[in-house]
Structure formats: structure tokens, C-alpha cells
Specification:
The protein is mostly helical. It is built from ten helices and five strands, in the order ααββαβααββααααα. The strands form two sheets. The chain has a three-stranded antiparallel sheet with strand order 1-2-3. Strands 4-5 form a two-stranded antiparallel sheet. Helix 2 packs antiparallel against helix 10 and helix 4 crosses helix 10. The chain is globular. It starts with a helix and ends with a helix.
Length: 225
């Protein structure tokens, strides 16, 4: 089984070009996906915020590390000490993109392609090799966002992360629905009463961190223009 972070990465990759959308705040999104995965596995808990100026704290609850090495490393980071969810999302996402891409390459889903821009600047892209799994993920998302099917918890979590990135409506074929309708459906699924408190708290903390990163990026872009 792939990680939610791996599925998110596949959806953000251009299959032909191998380039990534939302690259400026991708680490935050991937860190959020790892935190949500740990919450779904019952490996962490997120305490309730005690005040407007206080951030929710995260602590490890699992004593046995997950089998997946990336999840095990993420849980070890959580277990180091109690940290705020927003701080932790940044820590979990730092440098993890390359590890996730390497995992997807080992699974035969993408392939690293190295070249040079203008013949001078080296770059690596990750075009799709086998999109069978990604297509299945997109079908599940389409069923939930367009056809009104009831998604499982992993699909709902992925919808919540995509919604925070403003990408949910760009991930599926609308099939006659407007982009606004798909966005509203995504938000309704993300906000619904569907998960255990730890999972919902982890999603809330992760999406809040992504919103902060996106807003900060917008301010920086405006200041430089």
C-alpha cells in the first residue's frame, strides 16, 4: 500500500513532464500527509488547543514503529519531544520529497530523468512510467467529489489535503459540475464528521500549516513584484 504522501505526490506530478505543482509549499503538504497517516494508524494524538494563541501539541502514542521506513522516521521525530502540530508538519516534510520519489521509482510508478535547462542548469524530473495506481486514486477521488460516493477515510484525508492546497477541483474530471461545486464538495467531505478526533485534529493542524505557508508565499510574491 502506498502512503497518503505518495498518493499526494503522484497527483501533483505532471505525468508527461514529470514536474511538480504547488512546489513552493510542497514540504508542508507532505509533512501534513505523514502526520495524518500516523493519526489514521493510531500512532499519534493531537491535543486540543487551549487558547487562541496556543498551538495544538502532538505526541506519539505507538510503542512499535510502523513497517514503512518513512513513517517510522516520522514517528521517531514525533517521539523526540512534544511539539506544536505546525512546527512538526514542517519538520516531517523537510527533505522527504526525494525519499518519497525514490520510493515511487522503486515501485515502478515514476522514473528519474536528469537533464539540463538551457544546456546549463541541471534538473531532475519524474515522469510517470506506470499510472495504474494513480488512475485508481483519481477514480476514487472522482467517485467522492463528482459522483457523490461515500469515500473511505484515506480518500477523505487526501481530499482534505488537496482542498487545503486548492487542488481538489484540478485533480478530477468535473463531468458537468463546475469547479466551484467540486470545491464545495471537497470542503464538505473534509469538514464532515467522519474520523476519530485524533485524525480530524491532525488534518486541521496540517491544513492550517499549509494555509499559512500558502499565504506567506503569496505575500512574498507580492513583495517581490
Amino acid at each position: 500500500m502506498t502512503l497518503i504522501a505518495e498518493d499526494l505526490l503522484l497527483l501533483l506530478l505532471d505525468d508527461a513532464k514529470g514536474t511538480l505543482a504547488a512546489s513552493s509549499y510542497l514540504p508542508t503538504a507532505l509533512g501534513g500527509a505523514l502526520l495524518v497517516e500516523l493519526a489514521l494508524a493510531g500512532a499519534v494524538e493531537v491535543e486540543e488547543k487551549r487558547g487562541f494563541w496556543q498551538s495544538a501539541k502532538v505526541r506519539a502514542t505507538a510503542t512499535t514503529p510502523p513497517q514503512d521506513p518513512l513513517l517510522a522516521a516520522a514517528l521517531a521525530t514525533v517521539a523526540e519531544k512534544e511539539r506544536s502540530a505546525q512546527d512538526l508538519v514542517g519538520r516531517l516534510g523537510k527533505g522527504v520529497k526525494d525519499d518519497l520519489l525514490a520510493s515511487l521509482e522503486r515501485r515502478g510508478m515514476v522514473q528519474a530523468r536528469r537533464d539540463k535547462v538551457l544546456g546549463l542548469f541541471p534538473r531532475t524530473t519524474w515522469p510517470a512510467v506506470d499510472s495504474t495506481h494513480e488512475d485508481a486514486v483519481r477514480r476514487a477521488l472522482t467517485a467522492a467529489l463528482v459522483s457523490g460516493a461515500e469515500p473511505d477515510d484515506r480518500t477523505r484525508a487526501l481530499v482534505a489535503l488537496l482542498d487545503a492546497l486548492g487542488r481538489a477541483h484540478r485533480t478530477v474530471e468535473h463531468q458537468g459540475m463546475s469547479a466551484g461545486e467540486v470545491r464545495r464538495r471537497a470542503k464538505a467531505l473534509a469538514d464532515g464528521d467522519w474520523a476519530a478526533k485524533a485524525v480530524k485534529d491532525a488534518i486541521a493542524a496540517s491544513t492550517a500549516a499549509m494555509s499559512t505557508a500558502i499565504a506567506a508565499g503569496g505575500v512574498a510574491a507580492a513583495a517581490s513584484s
